Amino acid sequence: MRNRLTFANTISILLENKKKTYQQHQLVRSLFSAYLNDELSSGEIYAEDNTMYSRWCTGARPIPMEILHIYEDNNFEVMEEDFRCKIIPNLINESQARSQIEELINDSRNIIGNKTADEMLALTDNAAFFVAAIRYAILSNHGHSSLFSPDLSDTIQNSRLPSITEEFVGRKNELKECGKLLQERPTLFISGVAGIGKSEFAKYYADKNHKKYTNIIYLYYAGDLKKSIAGMEFDDDTSEMTEETLFDRHYKTLKKLHHDSLIILDNFNVLPKDDSFFRKFAQNDFQLLITTRCRPTQYPIMELKSLSASGMEVEELLYELQTCGLSISSGEAVELYKDGDYTDGLMAEHLKKLLQLGKLSDPCLDVHTRGLSAVPARYVPIS
């Protein structure tokens, strides 16, 4: 039986039963007011802080032990008072919240033991009960701390996720499927023809799901995976280090990452067998999202098809593009990022590739691309 009395499960119950006006960051800061300043307004809280709180609440990261150390010095009286004066008054249904946490405790008896369960359930004061459950949940999470990745945001100086294209449209079903496949198996290849948008898709998936991950690392493959890893910049690298030393040090750190970290390996246009280190690299515990033009057979693969082939009609595409502020009929060039290089091109030219219009005659091409700037009441779907 799995222990259900985790911080993520406990805090989710409090969040489920809170007032709508009582935001997640307020609850978290009230809960740990001895460590966090809970007097700050929403505008004074950094986006990075909100991301960190979300990771705590989803279980992607454990509550730092230094927080518990502060409360141990105060015998958790401060937290109990915060529950009584700040958190409980902002619960819509206090008794339901307690009942749901009691269910977590009873479902976890085989793990936490009957004695510990009975002691928590015997607490009649709800503030004391909530504190006891929260304290146990945090300590339990740290009992399995090996499942969490170290935060490398201050360690890795490059290899961060590149900025995404603001005009990214479509691929909603593919994004859901990508997340599902990564949960089932941690290595996933994104395949497709050149120009279909594999790199943008991978970056957009990572950006859209950044709250799930402690680390998101971007590696551009230039023919040798070991060289790509050695080329990363860590805060303690020195100019005297050889490429071999850099690789050993960097890879030793990457091996510490787990399922709560995502590595994007972009432009891996070779088969896995063609890079001698790939198989070993893919055996680690982190999630690995790879873009490729190849079709490996021994790993899960998701193929990106043209927007029309994936079920996106011209009218829907037009709406998405107009929402982004793009004009298809304009002669203005847009900047495209492809295989590490920036190029300029007309949006209509790029759309021809995405919609697989290359086999149509010039008059037909003209009709379709012009049609995107003013879709008529009736149109002919692209096939």
Question: Secondary-structure map with pairings?
Answer:
Elements: H1 7-16, H2 24-31, H3 47-58, H4 65-73, H5 77-87, H6 94-107, H7 109-112, H8 114-121, H9 126-142, H10 172-184, E1 187-191, H11 198-208, E2 215-220, H12 225-230, H13 243-254, E3 261-266, H14 278-281, E4 287-292, E5 301-303, H15 314-323, E6 333-338, E7 341-346, H16 347-354, H17 362-371
Helix pairs in contact: 1-6, 1-9, 5-9, 6-9
First-last Cα distance: 52 Å
Q: How much β-strand is present in the residues?
A: 5-15%
What Rg is obtained from the alpha carbons, in whole angstroms? 25 Å
Catalogue the unreliable spans: 372-383
Helical proportion? 40-55%
The overall pLDDT average reads 81
Task: Kindly give the count of domains.
Answer: 3
Structural class, judged by helices and strands?
alpha/beta
What does this structure look like?
By secondary structure, the chain is α/β, with parallel strands linked by helices. The chain has 17 helices and 7 strands. It has a 5-stranded parallel sheet with strand order 2-3-4-1-5, covered by helices on one side. The model is unreliable at 372-383 (pLDDT under 50).
Task: Write a concise keyword list for the protein shown above.
383 residues, alpha/beta, Rossmann fold, 3 domains, five-stranded parallel β-sheet, two-stranded antiparallel sheet, 17 helices, 44% helix, elongated, disordered C terminus
Concise description?
The protein contains 17 helices and 7 strands. By secondary structure, the protein is of the alpha/beta class. A hairpin with a 2-residue loop joins strand 6 and strand 7.
